[in-house]
Design brief:
- By secondary structure, the protein is of the alpha/beta class.
- It has one domain: Cytosolic phospholipase A2 catalytic domain (3-Layer(aba) Sandwich), CATH 3.40.1090.
- Strands 1, 2, 3, 4, 5, 6, 7 and 8 form an 8-stranded mixed sheet that branches.
- The chain is globular and about 55 Å long.
- One of its GO terms (molecular function) is hydrolase activity.
- Keywords: Hydrolase, Lipid degradation, Lipid metabolism.
- InterPro entries: Acyl_Trfase/lysoPLipase, NTE, PNPLA_dom.
- This is Putative NTE family protein.
Length: 302
C-alpha cells in the first residue's frame, strides 16, 4: 500500500496540532505507513499508531504538570524563583505527572509492537547524537524523547542518558527517511519567528541560539518531500495548556491547506526514484556473444 511517512516535531502544547493533522488524514483516508516523532510529536505519533484518541483539552489536562505551571508566571517573584531553581538544581521539574500520563495511555505497550512502523527520537545528552528508539517500552521512550534539558531530568536508557529529541533534530526527518517506506511529510509546530532587537545580553545570546536552531531546522526540512509549518502567531507558549484547543484548530487549518499537495505526493512517482528516461539511459548494454572467425577466413600467418 502506498502512503506517507510522517515526521512530527516537538513543541509542547503546540503538539496538539499534530492530533489535528492526523484527524484530517483519517477523514481524507490518506494512508500513513510510517511515523517518526520527537517530544510532543512522538506522543502524537504513538497515539496514532496505538489508536489512542483524545480531545486536545482532555489530553492537556491528563498531562498537565503543576510544577510546569509555575514556569508560565512572569511576575518578578516567579522570575526570581526560576533563577534560584536554575542555579540550585539540574532541572526544574521531576516530570512525574507527565510520566504517569504516558504510562496510563500506553501501559506495557512496546515500540516494536506498533501496528504502524514507529520511531521515537531522542538525543544522547553527552554526544548530541540523534538516537532512534525502535524497541522498548513506549512510555519510557516518550519520557526520554520529551526530557527538555534543564526542565526535566534525562532518562537512562541502555547505558546512555537521553534527552529531548528536538536537541538533535527539531523535526525528525532523518528518522522518517530511514524507515524508507514512502514520501516524507514533515510537520513543524514552531511559533512564527519574530524579529526584535534584544534588550539584554542574555536575550541576545538566546536569540542567537534560536537563529542557529532555525537554520538547522531549515536544513532538515529541506530533506522532506513536503513540509507543513504551524507558524503560530501570536505565539503559543510551550507549556501553556490553556492553548491546546487553539493549537489544534490552527493545526486543522494547516493540514486541510496541505491536503492537495499530500494527494499529489501519493499520485506521483516514488520519491528518490529516477525518471524512466534516465533509467533507460543508464542501462548497460547486454554483452553480445563473441563469434569465432572461421578458420578458412583467417589471414595466413607470415
Amino acid at each position: 500500500m502506498r502512503g506517507i511517512v510522517l515526521a512530527l516535531g516537538g513543541g509542547g502544547v503546540r503538539g496538539t496540532a499534530h492530533l489535528a493533522l492526523l484527524d484530517v488524514l483519517r477523514e481524507a483516508q490518506i494512508p500513513v505507513v510510517g511515523l517518526a516523532g520527537s517530544s510532543a510529536g512522538a506522543l502524537a505519533a504513538a497515539m496514532y499508531a496505538f489508536d489512542r484518541q483524545m480531545r486536545p483539552a482532555e489530553l492537556a489536562e491528563w498531562l498537565k504538570d503543576p510544577e510546569l505551571e509555575r514556569l508560565q508566571k512572569n511576575d518578578a517573584l516567579h522570575q526570581m524563583f526560576r533563577l534560584v531553581e536554575f542555579l540550585r538544581r539540574p532541572y526544574l521539574a521531576e516530570g512525574s505527572k507527565i510520566r504517569q500520563g504516558f504510562r496510563a495511555l500506553f501501559g506495557n505497550c512496546r515500540i516494536e509492537e506498533s501496528p504502524i512502523p514507529l520511531v521515537i527520537q531522542a538525543c544522547d545528552l553527552h554526544t548530541g547524537e540523534l538516537v532512534m528508539l525502535k524497541a522498548g517500552p513506549v512510555a519510557e521512550a516518550l519520557a526520554a524523547s520529551s526530557a527538555v534539558p534543564s526542565v526535566f531530568p534525562p532518562v537512562r536508557w541502555h547505558g546512555r542518558w537521553l534527552v529531548d529529541g528536538d536537541v538533535a533534530e527539531k523535526v525528525p526527518v532523518t528518522a522518517a527517511k530511514a524507515l524508507g517506506l514512502g514520501p516524507v511529510v514533515a510537520v513543524d509546530v514552531s511559533n512564527r519567528p519574530v524579529a526584535s532587537e534584544p534588550k539584554s545580553a542574555l536575550e541576545a545570546a538566546l536569540q542567537a541560539g534560536e537563529a542557529s536552531r532555525r537554520r538547522l531546522l531549515s536544513l532538515a526540512l529541506a530533506q522532506a518531500d513536503l513540509s507543513i509549518a504551524l507558524a503560530a502567531d501570536p505565539p503559543i507558549e510551550t507549556f501553556d495548556y490553556t492553548q491546546a484547543e487553539r493549537a489544534y484548530e490552527l493545526g486543522r487549518i494547516r493540514a486541510e491547506e496541505a491536503l492537495p499537495q499530500i494527494r499529489q505526493l501519493l499520485a506521483g512517482p516514488t520519491p528518490g526514484a529516477s525518471p524512466w528516461w534516465l533509467r533507460l539511459a543508464q542501462r548497460k548494454p547486454k554483452p553480445q556473444p563473441s563469434r569465432s572467425v572461421p578458420e578458412q577466413a583467417q589471414p595466413p600467418k607470415p
